[in-house]
């Protein structure tokens, strides 16, 4: 890497272009079974360099269509490995474009290669579940049609569910779900309808629907397919198994079990064969090949349903053990299904109640209590480093691992492999079962957290055990901090009372990097010490801790030299800069703290309002800015406390004394002259919060003014304070959300009418009127003309005279 960094930009571009041409010539000539590892590693390091990555990335993936024409599936597999494990921070538009290229009908229709197709689905899973929420929402809102027939294969129920999960999480975290506008409702419903047209089999358990934003939850509550008839499924499996045993000729078996209209039960039959005979006949592989890899997905879902039915009716440990071994043999001995695909299918089924628990009990048997998985993970973690750009022998380690744990597919068991083009395994460059299973673990953990609402101890115990066994694998996660942030933010309500679970989750994933990152690379030392305590005593951090937490973020924002985080190569980091890293690790720590959101939020606010004397006066704006940023990245339950503090101060009439109170609201001058107060600090924090706020958070301002502020405003001073509050955001609202300005102006006219009736004297009429003129001539125009005319006509004559140019009331009527 040091040598590549020493090259000039021009040289790096030329070298990248040469490697690309070399790779493409290999694809066309088919001179090698796969790309040379040295070329791939060099190319991956070059594309990490910022000035050439976007250009070369676009150039690389445009060749996917050409690859499909020459049927070089092994090269496609290698390109997908590069995309999954070596390219960093690809924007949502490019990733969505890859999905469209990847699942284009001209490509998908030709593929019947179990290894390639499974990895295509795994790549799509990683892309979909790893989308940046803000990029994803921005992409969705500007694209009139995000989903089409080439977006995902129509039979891939799991991938469509992952897309819905991503949409739900993105709308929640960005605050978009708070919008009730027709535009938001329209584009969300359009996406859901498009997906329903492509795949009408999506069903969700109630505990998942409870976590979805209301619009998505309501859509699927009214558009859910009927549940599987378990008794009918059991009868069908028994009948088909009897038919299998009654047919003695292999050709007749192939003809019957691959004919159109035959129930999708092949995996169920193989499972019963293993229970009875501990092996499956060779003809099974020919049947699987003829059914085709895409159709086998439906067979796998039926098998998942059948497994849950079987395990729910098992009595005694010996029966459970025998059934577990049969499923295990399907994966590791017979190689007819991959572990990651089976786990994903099980995790995303729509089971309720006891059946859901049985489903995750099966997942637990296949993972936590399975030496086939544990041995692979332990050896992989022990021999490899997540800092692949520093590991010079990655390819050697990968090949040794695959020799010890070969990844076979069912065609290897056929003697007549020459007639089957899918028989040969594609030698992986970067991938293996340990890396492929990692995004599936993400989904399993999220589904278990959703089940917490069912109040079952099994869920918490399973998460705890899963993290104990495989938490070390998370050092290879592409987005560990983002995963923690998304989990703690999206499932905030589910995790509200689960302090131990939050602590365990954060500590396990952060601690996985202990041998590769400095001690305080993310979470603070006080929090890590709290995590390591085994007792159940809750930690109650004081004001000094919160000052340290915010101060660490302030130092990161203000100066690289004072930055408390270790500098790292952000070309290979999940964040593009250290400031983003600092923000998200700070929010992860806050979200994982024990205690109520209200108490934590008050502590954050008090860092400025109560402890400002211990902060350098020249840096106070940096601290306010930092706290505002933190609140924008936290759930509404945290930021709402900041708004409540403002409302409480607004109610306090003692805050406004005398006729000259403008200095109370002016933070900059009051701070410079050493007579600052709670009001100016709180107002400054609110301004910081909404300046940095997301589009969804900004759109909540009219609702906040209408429901919380307007009922309080009775005096001239309160009205002016509200004007101080909304004034700085008018320009942003005009460019991003004009309807919000109209709504705010509407509320301000109502508040003016109230103040006019409640106050006998108005001392600052000119100031108030100036703002209303500014509203009309700069922002609202004639959009509120009729409403303004009605309001002004009811005001006192002095106000009517001052505001006469806002309305169409004649001068005679005003003077009269």
Automatic annotation (TrEMBL):
Where does the record say this protein resides? Nucleus
Asked whether the UniProt record includes Membrane among its keywords, one would answer: no
Alphabetically ordered keywords of this record: Nucleus, Transcription, Transcription regulation
Q: In the UniProt record, does the keyword RNA-binding occur? A: no
For this protein, the record's InterPro entries field holds: Mediator_Med23
Principal location listed in the UniProt entry = nucleus
> Can you tell me which family this protein belongs to?
Belongs to the Mediator complex subunit 23 family.
What's the name of the protein? Mediator of RNA polymerase II transcription subunit 23
> Per the UniProt entry, what species is this protein from, by scientific name?
Dermatophagoides pteronyssinus (European house dust mite)
- The gene it comes from is MED23_1
